[in-house]
Design a protein that fits this description.
There is one protein chain. The chain contains 14 helices and 31 strands. By secondary structure, the chain is α+β, with helices and mostly antiparallel strands. α8 packs across α9.
């Protein structure tokens, strides 16, 4: 009896610790992701799924949002993969969950997760209904032929409207009403039904274990002790510890030092088979050698082609990132490379500025993405950086018909050589209630938007479609939209090609010297107003010197606005207690000559906050 009891306790422990006991059956694997609009409760619902499957014993709230920044802001920034085990009808199933972000700026993270899954939970808030990003992510999932399981979350709230939201989902998906699951991440209601639906409705992975190895890398992280850890999903074949593998697109060859599955921690395994989601450690130290979307295969028996259907990232917003201290340039490069491993949507290339020295021109998916990257550089890598005014990329055609792509106003050729400039346009979708249609339309028209169509979704909720220049929305559009709609409007956009536009370069001059970090490309109709407001803002932010500082906004050689920061006057006549007036005049003349010389050689210090002054003009 003592031996039986001992075995009863030891066997489960052996199962967890011995990597070679893990055997996966492809029919019992389910790979799924969670897609939703921002703040619809997907991270809380993911916690309930982890609790119910006993993957974690006690939740500390948002277990998958492990970054301090994610918990502080209450948003998901990174996709997180985790494996759960669940017994259903006396059979054990392996459930691989990928929790995805909901903000429009992180849609690339969602596309990576969708590429590694066969099913998706579509979470909709019971009090807010279907939002813009919900529709966008849903279409992305349908394009990849994912099985969609609709879930109405937060059904326990007093403001919940499950009946109306069900109508919206039925109209959107064309599904049956009984297929929609009502749930609550807070109370745990509906979690059992969700797990049953995942097992019954989501198809098992398709693939051939006898075929050559094909594994899609969907994410990677940098570990300072172990190098780069790549996360992958096996489409075909089997991988074992010690196998010689190569990355298909880069052609680099490695040994699989350690492979395993992703729980709350990484659990090593001897082998992973078709349909499994796991990680590989090969001692890779150089970030350029791992590309998200690459295919892992064996050296001895390689696959014929790489896995297709993975989207390349398209940066929408560009900004210069410069170290405050010039000697930190190489440290900034290393930090950006490590950050790029964890955030494949970040792109960067070296550039230099007369005002700021050497730095990098970085491409971001949006303003929030830019803010998050800047915050992560500070917190994770202790890098103090200056970020220039964000702008978008433009196509400039010269008189010979040659096209150059310009991301920075400083790279713009002379105005006399330019035939035309084309700017990127987007197709924007705004979902709101009828109460806020007027102010939202005024905002969009003020940003040079063209109304395409408007349609009622249900009740008093309406979807408005606009064609808009991307350059008009990257600064403050999202914040202003939320303000005028009291948070009730949701926004989503997609690239919609390039169009010719009357754009001009607006320069800011300090004492006649252009500050290239403050230059912007703007529409000719907005130039005067923007130049005037920039001069006024800089007058507030630049500290006074002992000489006058002229702040000017210029288009080419034409000055369109000017502000003057008056000199700090030192009272040189304070020591004259009477006597002839010529004594005072002599001292004042001497001071005047000194100020003139100072103006010729003096430098104007531009504080860091002035570089983002344009963002706060309103």
């Amino acid at each position: 009896m003592i031996y039986i009891n001992a075995l009863f306790f030891i066997l489960p422990f052996m199962y967890l610790c011995a990597p070679n006991i893990y055997i996966s059956n492809m029919k019992n694997i389910r790979n799924f992701c969670i897609i939703a609009h921002i703040d619809h409760g997907k991270s809380t619902l993911a916690d309930r799924l982890l609790e119910f499957t006993k993957t974690i014993l006690v939740t500390g709230g948002q277990m998958l949002d492990d970054m301090d920044l994610e918990r502080e802001r209450g948003i998901t920034i990174k996709s997180h993969a985790i494996q759960m085990e669940y017994i259903y009808n006396d059979e054990k199933y392996i459930l691989n969950l990928i929790d995805t972000p909901g903000h429009v700026d992180f849609s690339y993270e969602v596309s990576r997760s969708i590429a590694a899954c066969e099913g998706a939970l579509l979470i909709v808030d019971a009090s807010q209904g279907v939002q813009a990003q919900t529709i966008s992510n849903l279409y992305m999932a349908i394009e990849h032929d994912l099985e969609i399981i609709p879930v109405i979350n937060k059904c326990d709230m007093a403001s919940a409207m499950p009946e109306e939201v069900e109508d919206e989902i039925v109209e959107l998906l064309g599904c049956k009403r009984e297929e929609i699951i009502r749930a609550s991440g807070k109370t745990g209601m509906g979690v059992e039904e969700i797990l049953a639906a995942i097992i019954e409705r989501v198809p098992c992975p398709k693939g051939d274990e006898e075929a050559p190895l094909q594994a899609l890398i969907f994410d990677s992280v940098f570990n300072s002790f172990r190098g780069i850890i790549a996360y992958f999903k096996i489409t075909n074949g089997v991988i074992r510890t010690g196998d010689k593998v190569k990355f298909f697109n880069t052609g680099k060859e490695y040994a699989a030092d350690e492979i395993g599955v992703l729980r709350m921690d990484m659990i090593p395994r001897k082998e992973l088979r078709t349909g499994d989601v796991g990680y590989i450690i090969s001692g890779i130290k150089t970030s350029k050698e791992v590309k998200v979307g690459d295919t892992v295969t064996h050296i001895a028996r390689p696959c014929a082609k790489a896995i297709s259907g993975f989207e390349e990232v398209k940066p929408m917003v560009f900004a210069g990132v410069y170290p405050i201290e010039a000697e930190e340039f190489e440290d900034l490069r290393a930090s950006l490379e490590k950050l790029q491993l964890n955030d494949a949507s970040l792109t960067f290339q070296p550039e230099s500025s007369l005002a700021l020295g050497f730095g990098f021109r970085c491409g971001f998916l949006g303003l929030l993405h830019m803010e998050i990257v800047q915050e992560r550089l500070d917190r994770e890598f202790d890098m103090n950086v200056i970020t220039t005014v964000p702008n978008v990329s433009y196509r400039i055609y010269d008189k010979q018909g040659e096209m150059t792509e310009v991301h920075n106003p400083g790279g713009m050729p002379d105005q006399t050589l330019i035939d035309r400039i084309e700017e990127p346009y987007i197709k924007a979708s705004v979902i709101t209630t009828t109460d806020y249609i007027g102010p939202i339309m005024s905002l969009c028209l003020g940003k040079r938007g063209e109304l395409l169509k408007q349609e009622y979704i249900s009740g008093n909720r309406i979807e408005i479609h606009y064609n808009m220049p991307l350059g008009e929305i990257v600064i403050d559009f999202y914040d202003r939209l939320k303000s005028i709609s009291k948070g009730y409007a949701s926004f989503d956009y997609h690239p919609n090609g390039f169009r010719p536009s009357k754009l001009i370069k607006l320069d800011i001059l300090l004492n006649g010297e252009p500050v290239d970090a403050l230059s912007t490309l703007t529409h000719v109709d907005n130039a005067y107003e923007l130049g005037k407001r920039m001069c006024e803002k800089l007058k507030e932010l630049i500290p006074r010197q002992q000489f006058d500082i002229a702040i000017q906004a210029a288009i080419g050689a034409k000055i369109i606005s000017r502000e003057t920061i008056k000199a700090v006057r030192k009272d040189v006549t304070a020591k004259c207690y009477g006597g002839d007036i010529s004594r005072k005049r002599k001292l004042l003349e001497k001071q005047k000559k000194g100020k003139k010389r100072m103006k010729q050689i003096g430098n104007v210090e531009v504080p860091q906050k002035a570089f983002l002054a344009v963002l706060k003009l309103d």
